[in-house]
Design goal:
The structure holds two protein chains of two kinds. Helices cover 73% and strands 1% of the residues of chain A. Chain A is built from 15 helices and two strands. The two termini of chain A are 24 Å apart. By secondary structure, chain B is mainly alpha-helical. In chain B, α2 crosses α9, α9 crosses α10 and α9 runs parallel beside α11. The chains are: A mainly alpha, B mainly alpha.
């Protein structure tokens, strides 16, 4: 971890990259739009995971549940005639945050492996439940109408800008958290929960707040995804990829940093896209290998590697660190 | 009442195989403090090895159990020494992601070799069953339960009586102290991981006889392994047995009275409730 606020240069670069991403639709290519919208979506989800898994140290393996809840909140609103994309994002964020608070109070008492398993089961159980409830379209899913904004129909490219807004909010939110009392409290909990409690930090309160923020980021991404994809079913909403990509992205960029998730989203999407295009049948195999390599050689992320400069000794150091 | 006893018997029969599914998983978790997310994929590999031997050489699936065990044991040993050993003491995030990456990799290998089609191993005696007072007991499932119990018993005996078994138990209690007494911890961990993979292979052989399977069947078995471990506590044969039987019965009754579509959701709800109220399992001992 590179200090609580992360490397200032890295944050500046991330902010500039976000600004540059505003101009992607000028290329007028549907493929490019979809590709970069994917980066923004995973970026937002990775930021969401980073708040709870990175800053707070509670490694969630079910954060996809917020994405799914956000997606279904937007899709349900749409089936009741409310297709305003701004309103959908807000509603999705609220729904995901409420879910995080209600479940967080019992589940955030668990630690380590047990928290990981509990969150994984929440995601699986949510997928199972929605697959059985007709109001959510069961396994057939829901297909909302095209998005509107303030009552007017909008072109499809608006889904790109909406995803940009969600990711920008997630980045800005992470920056704000990292600079606030909340952020310091979260890091204190991560480093030593008992000591943090002794210092007057209420761990339960802060952990629940962190998970709610985490949920809002994922939920917002889910709402926009529904309109970009114009269809949602349980298998898509709670896909394993959507669960694990954000984690690997945060790890690749730098866990518990402001710039890390966006950097990770860029690089991993690039790797993933290349593998898909060139090796469609053994794409997962390579992807699994990428995860193994990142975990073994870059457990502290690329940002730490850049900061450390003496890169080769760092590889060896990482490899030796946890061996018996 | 008859239905009740039929469900109970079905639950126990399912529980036997679940106990074996969980046993290997539980050993690695309890002794090495690693959650092996590739365990489900190891099980599937065992099932596919059995399927291939059955199709190519018409070998009886029950005779394939030792072969699947040995193949997976070797794979587990190599995996531990070449990869897992570097993250044994790493935080949860590292081990979770690493084993998840491994499972992706292995699942893709399975897909390449055996495609994504659903497979099953159907023998001449697959449909045979006993009839005890109106309760039907499929012969294959009964045999599976007996073999699962026997394998569990052998494992327990091996852990309790052999020198290596004692070294394993010592390592699980205190790594530092075990090292001081001359235990080669890296070797012990490799054996534990290999044994766990071998048990997964044996479980896979047994599963191939009773259930249809595809590469994506790995996740449900992994999740059930979790649940059984949490129910029974970690790192012990008895825990896996009790957890497996309890869970098998709960699952059978849940699908009977709540609906088969909800069976997994109910199981996960049970898991969550137990985790929240009794995080070390029904008969568990405290572990980190």
């Amino acid at each position: 971890m590179i200090g609580i606020a992360g490397n200032r240069v890295a944050i500046l670069v991330a902010a500039l990259a976000m600004l540059a991403l505003l101009f992607v639709p000028l290329a007028k290519s549907d493929y490019t739009n979809a590709l970069f919208r994917g980066i923004l979506m995973y970026g937002a989800m990775s930021y969401g995971w980073n708040v709870i898994g990175g800053y707070t140290g509670y490694v969630s393996f079910g954060n996809v549940v917020f994405f799914g809840i956000g997606a279904y909140a937007a899709a349900l609103l749409a089936t009741h005639g409310i297709t305003d994309i701004g309103l959908s994002i807000v509603a999705a964020m609220v729904a995901a945050a409420l879910f995080a608070v209600v479940l967080g109070i019992p589940v955030l008492r668990l630690q380590g492996h047990y928290f990981g398993i509990a969150t994984l089961s929440i995601a699986l159980a949510a997928q199972d439940l929605i697959s059985n409830i007709d109001a959510f379209g069961a396994t057939n899913g829901l297909s909302p109408k095209a998005a509107t904004l303030f009552g007017a129909a909008v072109p499809y490219v608006v889904t790109y800008y909406a995803m940009w807004v969600v990711c920008a909010l997630a980045l800005a939110g992470t920056y704000a958290v990292s600079r606030s009392r909340l952020g310091y409290a979260l890091v204190a909990i991560r480093e030593n929960e008992g000591a943090a409690a002794v210092l007057g930090i209420n761990p339960t309160k802060y952990k629940v707040i962190a998970w709610a923020i985490s949920g809002m980021m994922g939920g917002g991404a889910g709402a926009v995804f529904v309109y970009a994809n114009s269809y949602i079913d349980p298998a898509t909403a709670f896909a394993v990829d959507n669960n694990v990509f954000p984690i690997v992205m945060a790890l690749l960029g730098g866990v518990g940093t402001v710039a890390g998730p966006l950097l990770g989203a860029f690089i991993l999407t690039a790797i993933n896209e290349t593998l898909w295009n060139h090796f469609p049948f053994i794409h997962t195999l390579f992807f699994g290998a990428v995860i193994v390599i990142v975990v073994l050689f870059l457990p502290r992320g690329l940002l730490a590697l850049i900061a450390a400069r003496r890169s080769w000794s760092l590889y060896v150091q990482h490899l030796r660190a946890y061996r018996v | 009442m008859q239905l009740f006893f039929q469900d109970l018997v079905n639950g126990i029969l399912t529980g036997g195989i679940l106990a074996l599914v969980a046993l290997g998983f539980s050993l690695v978790w309890g002794i090495m403090n690693i959650i092996n997310l590739a365990h489900g994929t190891f099980i599937m590999l065992g099932a596919y090895v059995t399927y291939q031997l059955f199709v190519s050489f018409h070998l009886d699936p029950f005779l394939c159990i030792p072969i699947a065990f040995v193949v997976l044991f070797a794979l587990g040993y190599v995996t531990q020494l070449s990869i897992i050993n570097y993250v044994v003491r790493a935080p949860v995030l590292t081990t979770f992601l690493l084993t998840f990456g491994l499972s992706l990799l292995l699942e893709n290998v399975i897909l390449l070799i055996w495609t994504g089609d659903t497979r099953s191993v159907t023998t001449g005696y697959s449909g045979a069953h006993l009839d005890v007072g109106g309760i039907t007991i499929p012969l294959v499932k009964l045999l599976t339960l007996v073999i699962a119990l026997a394998i569990g018993g052998l494992t327990q005996l091996w852990l309790a009586r052999t020198k290596l078994g004692r070294a394993i138990r010592a390592t699980s209690m205190d790594v530092g102290a075990a090292q001081l007494t001359g235990v080669r911890v890296a070797h012990v961990y490799a054996i534990v991981f290999a044994l766990s993979a071998g048990l997964a292979g044996a479980a896979g052989s047994l599963i191939s006889v009773s259930y249809a399977f595809s590469p994506s069947s790995a996740t449900p078995f992994l999740i059930k392994g979790f649940i059984v471990c949490v129910l029974g506590g970690l790192g012990s044969v008895q825990g896996a047995l009790v957890g497996g039987l309890v869970y098998g019965i709960v699952e059978t009754f849940a699908s009977q009275y709540i609906g088969a579509g909800y069976a997994d959701a109910v199981a996960l709800a049970v898991l969550l409730v137990i985790l929240v109220f009794r995080p070390t399992g029904i008969m568990g001992r405290a572990t980190a």
